[in-house]
Design brief:
By secondary structure, the protein is of the alpha/beta class. The protein is built from four helices and four strands, in the order E-H-E-H-E-H-E-H. It has a four-stranded parallel sheet with strand order 2-1-3-4. Strand 3, helix 3 and strand 4 form a beta-alpha-beta unit.
């Protein structure tokens, strides 16, 4: 069975998306990587990331809009918004709980993963 590829995106790939990649990196259900939409990102999102991904999670609606705008020439995967504000540090316990709850819920309810 093919494991889906999941890309998790936030602003600068320092806290939220990097935490998601870290906590799910050994999950057998899917492959995961993270990136940021800001030009100042530690790891900036690329066309290759979007071609690789079967599903993209972003933290905020504005990040989805930015991806749609920057990559409108591409056929994009589904982009789900997690609605997690930039109020947390890397590996914050509350952030981990939010990411696990929202990502697992979406994967289970919408994608049967």
């Amino acid at each position: 069975m093919h494991k889906p590829n999941i890309l998790v995106v936030c602003g600068r790939n320092k806290k939220r998306s990097r935490t998601a990649e870290y906590i799910f990196k050994n999950d057998d259900r899917f492959n995961i990587r993270s990136a940021g939409v800001s030009p100042k990102s530690d790891r900036k999102i690329t066309e290759n990331d979007l071609s690789w991904a079967n599903l993209v999670f972003v933290m905020e609606t504005s990040q989805r809009a930015r991806i749609w705008d920057l990559y409108r020439h591409m056929e994009l995967p589904d982009i789900e918004v997690l609605h997690i504000p930039d109020d947390y540090e890397f590996m914050d316990e509350e952030l981990i709980e939010l990411l696990m709850d929202r990502i697992n819920h979406t994967l289970h309810s919408t994608y049967q993963i």
